[in-house]
Amino acid sequence: MKIEAVAVTVAALSVSIALGNLSGCSSGNAAAPTFTSSAGGPVIANVTFHKDVEPILQKNCQKCHVSGGIAPFALMTYDDAKQTASEMATQTAQKTMPPWGAFSSSTCTPTHGFQEDLRLSDQDIQTIADWDSAGAPEGDPKDAPPAIAISTNVGLSGAVQAFKPAAPYKLTASSDQFRCYVLDPKLTSTQYMNGAFVIPGNTQIVHHALIFADPNQESLALITDKTNNSYDCFGGPGTSAPSLVSAWAPGMQPQEFPSNVGMAIQKGTLFVMQVHYHPHSTVTSDTDVTTFQIRYLDKAPAYNLLTQLIGNFDGPISSGPGDGLMPGPDDPPSGPAFLIPAGVSGHTEEMQLTIPTTISGVALPDLYLYGVASHEHYVGTQQAISISHTPGFLSATPGAPSEECLLNVPAWNFNWQRFYAYQYDGVIEHLPRVGPGDKLHIKCTYDNTMQNPLLAESLGERQMNAPVDVKLGETTLDEMCLGG
């Protein structure tokens, strides 16, 4: 049986399920995660910037904190870092920086590592804390690591197509905006995407970008500005069944797959590029022309790359016993309901999906999981995605657990969604696997109180001083529980 490679939690499933749209990011300050670090332990002797701190910044920070980057200040030199030493120590100790949400816990520890993992080690966190406590000494410039090349516009090698709007987009407000651009690759036959990359035109305001496939060309009817074929789109592209193709966030490198992996892009498909614009105080230009690059294989691949968003169920579904929205706290007498009551913190919603044995009468192959992601809105605070394997899991693979955690996000931050950053590290044959009958489980946690800073800010923008009941939906004050 041929085994497929999938870029997200589950392959595209042709079953009767409610698939939600993936939103972008927004402004505001999320609450600091309740983590502890080794900061406060024994002081590291003679810690200096060039010898100890600069190597950490090169590896984990400078791709964003560079002149012209998305970060509001640079961390390229000693003078840059000294000005923010105390803030660096605080943010790294709280693990709000670098922006990485996937952490293990006592109940959810993924069995595979992730690519481009930005997490600092406890030793790195301690080093920055000790450097700040010592007065942020510079040390000897001769101890500095070799300089690294930093570029905010790195292209995709072997790109065969590049698309960008015909005219620049100009921000019309000082708050976050989400704009969708319709791009036509003019495909006359099925092509197999093997690489993709987004090059932000204005790195000061482009917070992230998502690329969706629109095989039915529904996006054409949504265009409001024909000069650049664009329209506003907070919740997603606005099409009936969006399929995520690629994504970009600051610091990400071109998305490239092995030569035997590709995603089918059907004849006549349009691309919809959703760009999240995030203006801030240091912005010097409010216009943007962002580019999307793509590379195709010369022939059909050995492994088909499939992307699917799973979740946002508003009730039971027919894929398996107990599938869909599961019973939870605050449900009405009539049964499970996606409802987060006003004033409640720690509320949970849980969802389940059974991987089917067939799709449209065709046996579903076993799957390799290439990556996984989580998504909520402003009320969301945590998410965990796991899978329960069937008793005969892939012919009783030696050492394979019956329950496997795929992703744990203990401090969800709407500002720093890295949808494609949680790609598993390793060759395809060593990636997590799932098969028919396995059950995917998503658990989302919410804080619908004024102690949730993102929610409080969003309510304040609407002249509201108290939370309201929150239901499933796509607007800012609706919520989602979505995995991919």
Descriptive keywords:
484 residues, mainly beta, 9-stranded mixed sheet, 5-stranded antiparallel sheet, 10% helix, globular, disordered N terminus
Structural account:
The chain has 484 residues and is mainly beta. It has helices at residues 49-60, 78-83, 85-94, 122-133, 453-461; strands spanning 4-6, 161-163, 169-170, 177-183, 191-199, 206-214, 230-232, 243-248, 255-256, 261-265, 270-277, 287-288, 291-296, 303-306, 310-311, 324-325, 339-340, 345-354, 358-359, 362-363, 367-369, 374-375, 380-388, 403-409, 433-434, 439-447, 470-471, 482-483. Strands 1, 2, 5, 9, 10, 13, 14, 21 and 25 form a 9-stranded mixed sheet that branches. The protein has a 5-stranded antiparallel sheet with strand order 7-4-11-6-8, with no helix packed on it. Strands 16-18-26-23-24 form a 5-stranded antiparallel sheet, with no helix packed on it.
